[in-house]
Amino acid sequence: MRDTIAPLLDVAQLKTVFHTRSGAVHAVNSVSFSVAPGELVGVVGESGSGKSVTMMSLMNLLPRSAEIVGGEVLFEGRDVRAMNRAELLRLRGRDVGFVFQDPMTSLNPVFTVGRQITERLRKHMNMSKAEAKMRAAELLSLVGISDAARRLQDYPHQFSGGMRQRVVIAIALACDPKLLIADEPTTALDVTIQAQIIALVRDLRQKLDMGIVWITHDLGVVAGIADRVIVMYAGQIVEQGPVRELFARPQHPYTRALLETLPSVTGARSERLRTIEGQPPSLGGAPDRCPFAPRCAHTFGRCLTENPQRIEVGGGHDVACWWDPQTGEMRHV
Amino acid sequence: MFAFTIRRLLFAIPTLLAISFIIFAILDLAPSDPTGNLPLTISPEVRAQIRSSLGLDEPFPIRYLLWLKQFFINEPLNLIEGWTGWTLGDGERMRVTSWATRSPVVDLIIERMPQTLWVVGMSQVIAIVIAVPIGVISAYKQYSWFDQIGTFVSMVGFSIPTFFTGLVFIVLFSVHLQWFPSIYDTNHVIDSWDSFVFQIKQMIMPTMVLALATAAQLSRYMRASMLDNLQQDYVRTARAKGLTERVVVMIHVLRNSMIPVVTVIALNIPTIFGGAIITEQIFRVNGIGQLLIIGIQGADIPLVQTLTFIFAVLIVLFNLIADVLYGILDPRIRYE
Q: How does this chain sit within the bilayer (chain B) (predicted)?
């Protein structure tokens, strides 16, 4: 199905580098993926694996110290990196919505919530003040905030954390985006609020039919909502596949280890939580070997001399690893 | 907010009473003698009579209470009479009188006020107009050549005292280039275009000396505050909404960055009224600062007392104004 529909977002060989005092840090390394219209792609990986930087690179929302050094980002076939300032602003404003991790800090404290929503509507939908206000109230009720018209005049600090995240989602949805990028939208929230936000996004997705990229480090969340999963490690995509396929047949040792770290509901209580031994590698220097090799239980000589490319293993599922879990031997590629 | 302001104003009364007592007591303890400057030929008996006529043989509490009455009741009534032309009571009141000039202290201050307000006030306005854009651009283009030069100039303005920059300005612009007069002429009357130009010319040097020092300080505050806010998450949200950089920086970031800077500006305003003592002295601007110096040198206790106390009132008042402004600018702060 993926091949028959033109992708909404197509990213190829994206490379982003942070310039630091101790040299270049390769935060995103030859990352390629695509998102189909209406598809929900989950991106998982531990902190520092480059999930957020990848997504910020798409619309060039990077901090000043970061630079995109290579690759191609196509949004509906248009080259985002080649766009001029006005086109990029229009793309950010109209076609893509962002939801960030911490709702406590991602809203401007000195402006009312209403103003922060209408600002976008007025700039990108050419609405009058009154129209924008009506639409903003609609959006707030859409994300489940009651008494929406009155709450438009409230400031962010007058909302609770979960409510603020709903406001951020309302801003993201303001111009009916084709793509929603949610960067750990539930990480800063407590578990019950988290469940509400996930239910909300699932509901909105059906109503609005938009592509969603959902970044998280919570495999449980991904299993519940995603169509397809991307696993990132050390700035690279190490495995990618449809959600059922990937959870049923994890290929990469890192994905397998991640799945093993999930605490089991049925397991004995006294059992210690499992962890992946070791630390993620530092990302200085271009990688000439598999970044997971130092922590991997199945390392071959080849892992230390050559960084594996992603190989299709069937059913839209691919993995970047020399080890074949079926045979326990090295793949012959 | 209104209730908060009223409560703070009421709280200011005991604060100011305490301050007035401390000022009065300290100046009273100072070993100064109002007859000290008189010729030695005047006999001790005459000196004692002079002191008695100044009320100095009354005990300390009586003198303090009398001063309070003069300052808080007589002087305001007198001001009201002056403004409205009414006569309240019999119009005969004891006023706070300067020992040196025998004229009422408040009249002296009112005479001196315009010069100080023009020169020092204008310097504050110029400082703000210069400092805010410099701070914004320096922060937005951090470590650029603009920022480096701005940082250098700020450090220079910050670390070189005004008496030095004042003299450098005089040597450079008055002595060598002869662009501006080195002495401020207070008697100058503006009645034509030429006299207006002259007024501007004579104001430029003292104003710029003070503005440089203040702008150096303010631009650093502005830069630090902008840098702090540029890194906030809400800036990324604003950019992600597709807003132009101009809107992101000049509306979202600037509004947040102004909060601490406005407080600094408000707390600086009493110094405008207080005059810039050293700068006024260098350029011979006969403003409040110079009046205070003359009062101190001549042991003119009533003058010094009154001026010091007026500064205290202004500081308390502008502290309150800074707090109220803070509440207006930052919706998270609401005083109950």
A: Multi-pass membrane protein
In a domain, B141, yes or no: yes
Give contacts of A132 with chain B, Cβ < 8 Å: none
The nearest CA of chain B is from the CA of A168 a distance in Å of: 9
Chain A 171-210, residues with CB within 8 Å of chain B CB atoms: 171
Inter-chain touch A111–B255, beta carbons under 8 Å: yes
Number of domains in chain B: 1
Q: Taking CB atoms and an 8 Å cut-off, how many pairs form between chains A and B? A: 72
C-alpha distances (whole Å) from B120 to each of A176, B228, B233, B317 are 55, 30, 39, 19
ipTM of this complex: 0.86
Q: Tell me, yes or no, if B236 comes closer than 8 A to chain A by beta carbon.
A: yes
To the nearest whole Å, the CA of B334 is away from the closest chain A CA by: 12
> Is the CB of B238 inside 8 Å of chain A's CB atoms?
yes
Query: How far is Cα A99 from Cα A52, in angstroms, rounded to an integer?
Result: 11
Structure tokens at B227: 């840098």
Question: H helices of A183-333, where?
Answer: 191-208, 219-225, 243-248, 253-261
Instruction: Name the residue in chain B with its Cα closest to that of A174.
Output: B241
Is A92 in Cβ contact with B239 (below 8 Å)?
yes
**Does B233 fall in a domain?**
yes
Residues of B in contact with A94 (CB under 8 A): 242
Of B294, B222, B292, the C-alpha closest to B253 is B222
Domain ranges of chain A: 9-110+155-264+271-330
B 254-293: CB under 8 A from A? 255-256, 259
Asked if the C-beta of A90 comes within 8 angstroms of chain B's C-beta atoms, the answer is yes
Contact A175, A210 (CB under 8 A): no
pLDDT in tens, chain A (333 residues): 445 567 899 999 999 999 988 888 888 988 999 999 889 999 998 888 888 899 999 999 988 889 999 899 999 989 999 999 999 999 999 999 999 888 888 999 999 999 999 999 999 988 999 999 999 999 998 888 889 889 999 999 999 888 898 899 999 988 889 999 998 888 877 888 888 888 888 888 888 888 999 998 888 888 888 999 999 998 899 999 999 999 999 999 999 888 887 776 666 655 667 777 777 777 766 667 888 888 888 888 888 888 888 888 888 899 998 888 888 777 766
CATH fold, domain A9-110+155-264+271-330, is Rossmann fold (3.40.50)
Q: Is residue B15 part of a domain?
A: no
CATH number at residue B285: 1.10.3720.10
Please check whether residue B287 lies inside any domain of the structure. Answer: yes
Burial of A20 (0-12, 13-18, 19+ CB in 10 A): exposed
From the list B236, B240, B255, the residue facing A110 with the nearest CB is: B255
Q: What pTM was estimated for this model as a whole?
A: 0.82
Q: Is the dihedral of CA A122, A125, A131, A134 positive or negative?
A: negative
- Give me the domain span that covers residue B290: 111-329
